[in-house]
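Hi D.,

Good news: the full-assembly prediction came through. Inputs first.
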Amino acid sequence: MLVLVGCMLGWAEAGLAQGGSMLGFFPGHVSSQLSLEKQFSDELQTADMDQWMKRLSALPHPLGSPYDKQNILFLDSLFRTWGYQTHIDTYYVLFPTPRLRRLEMVSPTRYQAVLMEKVIPSDPYTAQTALQLPPYNAYSADGNVTAEVVFVNYGIPDDYTQLEKMGISVKGKIVLAKYGRSWRGIKPKLAYEHGAIGCLIYSDPRDDGYTAGDTYPQGPYKNPYAVQRGSVMDMPVYPGDPLTPGRGATREAQRLTRGEAKTLIPIPVLPISYHDAQPLLAALKGPVAPPSWRGALPLTYHLGPGPTRVHLQLAFDWKLTPAYDLTATLPGSPYPDQWVLRGNHADAWVNGAADPVSGLVAEMSEAKSLAGLYRKGWRPKRTIVYCVWDGEEPALLGSTEWVEDHAAVLKQKAVAYINSDMNGRGYLYAGGSHTLEKFFSQVAAEVKDPEKGISVSRRQREADALQGHRPMEDFRLDALGSGSDYSPFLQHLGIASLNLSFGGEDGGGEYHTMYDDYLFFTQFKDPGFAYEKALAEVAGRSVMRLADADILPFDFTHLSRTVRRYTDEVRQLADDTRRLARLENHWIADSVYHHTSDPKEVFVAPAAPKPVPYFDFSTLDNALSALSRSASDYHHAIQALEVAPDTNLVRRINGAVYQSERQLLTEKGLPGRPWYRHLIYAPGLYTGYGVKTLPGIREAIEQGDYQNVNLQISQVSQALTNLSQFIDGLCPSKTQAGF
Amino acid sequence: MLVLVGCMLGWAEAGLAQGGSMLGFFPGHVSSQLSLEKQFSDELQTADMDQWMKRLSALPHPLGSPYDKQNILFLDSLFRTWGYQTHIDTYYVLFPTPRLRRLEMVSPTRYQAVLMEKVIPSDPYTAQTALQLPPYNAYSADGNVTAEVVFVNYGIPDDYTQLEKMGISVKGKIVLAKYGRSWRGIKPKLAYEHGAIGCLIYSDPRDDGYTAGDTYPQGPYKNPYAVQRGSVMDMPVYPGDPLTPGRGATREAQRLTRGEAKTLIPIPVLPISYHDAQPLLAALKGPVAPPSWRGALPLTYHLGPGPTRVHLQLAFDWKLTPAYDLTATLPGSPYPDQWVLRGNHADAWVNGAADPVSGLVAEMSEAKSLAGLYRKGWRPKRTIVYCVWDGEEPALLGSTEWVEDHAAVLKQKAVAYINSDMNGRGYLYAGGSHTLEKFFSQVAAEVKDPEKGISVSRRQREADALQGHRPMEDFRLDALGSGSDYSPFLQHLGIASLNLSFGGEDGGGEYHTMYDDYLFFTQFKDPGFAYEKALAEVAGRSVMRLADADILPFDFTHLSRTVRRYTDEVRQLADDTRRLARLENHWIADSVYHHTSDPKEVFVAPAAPKPVPYFDFSTLDNALSALSRSASDYHHAIQALEVAPDTNLVRRINGAVYQSERQLLTEKGLPGRPWYRHLIYAPGLYTGYGVKTLPGIREAIEQGDYQNVNLQISQVSQALTNLSQFIDGLCPSKTQAGF
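Then the structure:
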C-alpha cells in the first residue's frame, strides 16, 4: 500500500553551507572545512581518471600477471610523486589457474562446449586472448566426471526444497545452475551438500543477455559467448588465503594443507555461456521446470535428470602466488595514531575497466587532490592511509591477508575504512556501519549529482520514495554483507566501514567477462567519468571529514534505531516460521498436499517441520532500551561539548570512540565460522554476498537450530550492553540515569 | 503474510448423506433427493462423452458451416430420442469471415507472414484446412494500411500509460500486442482510442508457447505457427449481433447499419503466430521495453516506432448468417412455469474438442441421465430447459439473440441459468450469483473429485488455502464478467446464473487454434473424461436440486456479505486513488520524476492527476445493513417454514423468490452501455471478460469520472434497498424490525 511520504516534509538538504551544524566540528570550524572540501572537489580531474583507466586496463591484469604487478608499481610511483609515504606488502596466496577445461555432452547427442568468449573485431582489447585467464571458477576442485545433468534454477536453498517436492535428487549428478540470486560460491556448495559431483553455472539471457537489452557490441548485455568468471571459494566461512585463515599469508606463515582448508569446494565447477548451455538444456527431459525457473532460451526448460549426460574435466595449477598490497600514507597531527583508511582493489579478472578500475581511478583522483591540498598547507588531524589491494577477485586475498597481518595495529589505530570497487552512472549506493550513518548522510547531502544538480543523497531518497519505500529525512546506509574488501575490516576486526558506489543507469552484462574494457566502459558505463568524479567527491569528503573532525563523528542513535529494526525483523521471522510450521503440520496431517497435487506429476509432500518454540527476546529489548538511552545521552553530551569545548575530554573521546564498533564483536565468532566476529552484520552462510543482519540469531531461526536461538540473542544483548557501557564511559559527565 | 487457516476448523464436508439439512428441502425429502442424485450420477457414461466428442469435433464447425448445422441436428435428434420436446430458433446475425488476409514487413527488410497454422502429420484433424476458418479476428475492420510498428506489451490501459511516460505515441502506427492479461477485444479498442490504424496480436512463447511447456505435438503448448483466433467485437458495450442490440435478430428484425453499430472495431486487427511476430520484433528499434513487457523470443524487445514497417491488408465477407439455437424441454410440475435453464454452446472456431465440446458432452450426458430418471418415474417440480447455443465464439450470438428474443417470458419464468463451456482436468472453478452460493456450496460438497476421492469443493478450498488465501467453510463463487453464454441471462435480464468448469491440470495453448481437436484432448486435457463426468455431476445435480426443491434454494446472507466485501474494495480503491493522486501531485511539484529519471532515456512526467473528492458511501452502508437484516430474517423464516410447512406461503415464495436477482438491475443500464443492467456484476469496459464488481461505482473511480461516483453509489443503494423490501415481502410473517 502506498504511504504518503515525506516529500510533504520537504526534501530538506542538510544545508551546511547555509550555516547548519556539521557532525564532529566545532561551529567555528564548519565553514573552513566546507571551503577545504570545495577546493578538494574542484581539483578532481575527469581527464586524469580517463587516462588512468586507459592505462590500468590496457592489458589483462589478474592476480599474478605481469601487468597486475606493473599496475601496482605504476600506482606506487604516482603516490610517491604526490608526496605519500608508500609501502608494498607481499603475501603468498593459494591461487589456482586452469590447466585443462573440457566440457562435452556425450548423450543423447554430442556437443563440445566452446568455453571461450568471442573476439569482437571492433574492440581490440578482446583480442588479447593470449594474456587472458579463460572463463573459470577459482577454487573449483580438479575433477574428471561424467554424469546426467539436473537443472537446478539458481541453485539456492529454496530451489532444492522445490526439487525435493518434485522427487528429483542431484545425487551423483552434475547440476546446471543459473548465475544470479546468490553469490556464485553458494551454488557448488549446495550442489555438493546435496550429493552432486559437478556444477555448471551459466548466465541465462533473461537475466543479463538479450532479454535484458542489446548485446555486446551493439549494447552492453551478454552476447551468446560471454561468461562470468569468478571465485567459488566458500567465503561465508572465511575469505582470504584458504591456507592461512586468521593470519597473514607471509612467506614464512604456517599453512594448512589444501585438504585441511575449509573453504575449498570439493567438486569441479565451471562457468559457461548461454551458447554452451543451450544444447544441454534443450536435450533435458523430465518434469518441466516451475514457471519462475524458466529463462529466455527458445526451449522448454526441463529439470532432468538426463538424458543430457556430460563429461566435465578440469585441472588447475594450484600454486602460491605473490599478492602485492600497496599502502600510501599522509601523516596526521595531532592524532597520528588514528588512521582513516581508504581502499580499492587493482587486480581484475580480465581488463577490468569497470571492475575494479572505475573505483580505483576515483580513489587515485582523491589521493592526488588531497596531496595538492597538503602541499598548499592543509594538515589533517589524523593519518590518512590509501590502500590498493591485490587479489580481491579470487577471494579478497590482498585485503584479508593485510588485515590479518596488521590486526594488532589496526585494532588500535583504525578509525574507519572506506571502500569502493566497481562504479557507474546513476544513484548513490552506500552501505556501512550505522555508527557512521548520520555522518555519512551529511556528506552525501553536500555532493551534487552530476546529471541533475540536486544532492546525491536527495536523488537516492527520491528514487526510494518513488519505489514505494518509506521516506527518510536521513540517508539510509544498507547493511554490509560481503563481496569487496571492507569485509575483513568490518567483520573480522570491527572497524567501522563504508562501501560506496554509483550505479543503476549503467546496466550491462560485462561483469567478470573479457568485455569489461575501456571501450565498453566509455561507451556504456559512464562515458564522461562524471560519476567517478562523484564517487571521488563522496569518498574523499568522507575521508577528509573523518581526518579533520574536532570530535570523531560517530553517532549511536542511528545504530540503536537500526538494530531495533533488525530485532523486529528476526522476531517477525520467528513468528512467521512458527506459524508456517503449524500450518504445514496441519496441512500434512489433513493430506492437503496430497489432495491438491496433480496425480500425473511426481509430488513428494514435505516432511513435517519441527515446531518452533517461543524465544526470549527480553534481554535484547532491554539492551536496546539501554543503548537508546546511552546513544541519546552521548548525543547531548557532544552537543554540549561543541558549545563549550573541553580539550582533555575531546582528546579522550577521540582516542576511544572509534573503538565502539569493536564492542559489537564476539571473540569466538559466529556459529561454525569463527573468522566472522561481527554480531550485527555478516554475509549469509547460504546467500554469500547477501547480508544477514543479526546473523547468529537469524540463521539459527532460518536453519531450524532453535535450541541455539536464545544463546545467540544473549550474545547480541551482551554486546549491545557492552557498547552502552562503553558509550557511557566516554562522557562521564553525562546524566547517569538508572535503568 | 500467512494466515493460520481454517484447516484447524476441519475441512468439514457438508455431510448431507449423514443427515444434514439441504437448502430448499423439507427434512423428510433430503434422503430421497440424495438417492435420486446418486442414480443420476451413476447413469453418467464417460463412453458416451468420448463418442459424442469424437463425432461433434470430427470436422471444423464454426457458425455458418455445414458441420455446425449437422451437429445441431444430431443433438436435436438425441434429445428427441430421450424424450425431450425440442425446438430450434434461427437468428440471422452479422458474422464476417475473411476474404483476404495479408501481412508483410516492408522495411527494414522484407518478410511475408505465413498466417497459417502448421499441419501435424500425426494429427489428421489438422489437415482439414479446406474446411477451416483461417486465423483471424472476427469483427476486425476491413483495411489496407502501411505503417511503422509499436510494441505495446499486452495493449491494456497501464501499457499506454507507460508508453506515454516513455514519450512514445501509437498515433498513425500499427500496434503489435501480446495475447493475454485482457480479453483480446480490448487491445484493438485501446489501440484505436490512442490513434493507431492497425493492430496485430500474437501469442508470446513465454505465455503459452515453449516457455510454458513442450509444444504441440510433443506437448500441449503453442508451436511456432499456432494462432489464437477470436472475436474482437466490443462486447463490454453489448454482446450478440452488432446490428440488433437489445432485440432478437429474427429475419424481420429492425437492423442498424454497420456504421451505426457501436461494437464494431474501426481498425483492421489480425492475430499472428510467434513465428510471424519474431521478424517484426527483431527489427524494431527505439527504447528497450520495460522488463515485465519482455517475452521469451530470443531477441531484445524494443518498442519502436519502427523501423519495422508493415503492410496489413484485410477484407471480410460481411454476411448475415443463420444461427441455430436448440432448446430441449422436460416439463415440470407443480411449477411448469418455473424454468431451470442449462446451456453450453456447440459452435467452435475449428474442431473445438475442448472449446466447446468438452462442456457440451457433459451437458448431453446430464440430459440423457435425467431422461432416464424421467422414464423411471421421476418428475421434477419445475421445467428443465436444456439449451445448445450457436455462434458463441463470434460474440455470444446465439444465446444473446435468444435471450433478447424471449426476454418477456424469461423475465417471468427463468429461475436460474447454469452454463458450461470448455472443461478439463483439475479443480472446480465456479462463478455466479451469490444468491446461489450457499446452495451451490452444498452441491459441490456432494460431488467427489475423480482423482482424489474428496469432494470437489474441498479440493478447491484446500488449493486456495495452500495459495495463501483465506480459508472458507463455504465454497466461494467468483463474480462473473463475460466470456460465455451466461452473460445475457445474468447481466441483461437479471437471471441468477452459474458458470462451471474444471481445470488447472490441463494447461495448454490450443485455445482457438486448429490443434484443439479430439486427439489433443484425449492426450492432454482429460484422457479418461473423468472431469467431464464431474462437470456433469456438478451441473446436473444443480439442475436437479433447483428443479426439485420444496422451496427454491435462494439465500441472501452470502449475497449481503459479498456485496459488503465489494463495497469495502471500492471504498479502498477510492482511498488509494486519492492518496496516490496527492502523492503524485507532490512528486510533480517537487520535480521528483525529473530528478530520478535517466537523462539518457526519454521520460515524460505524468500530468498532475485530478484531486479525488471524498464520496458518500453512507447510503450504501445503510442499504447493506438493511439487506443483512432482511437476509437474516428470511433465513430464519425459511428455517421455520421447513419445520412447519405452510403450503400457500411456500407456493408464494417459490413463485417470487427467483425474481430477487432482477432487483439488482437498473433499467437504464450502466453508464455508456445500457444493455448491461446488473449493478453488481459486469465485464470491465477496459478488461473485457474480466469482471468488475459494483461496476458503475468502480469504473467511475477508475476512470476519474468523480462527479458520477455518488450517483452510482445511490443507484446501487437503491437496488439493494429494493431487494431488501422484496425479501421482506416474501415472508410477511417475519419480524419487521425497524431500521
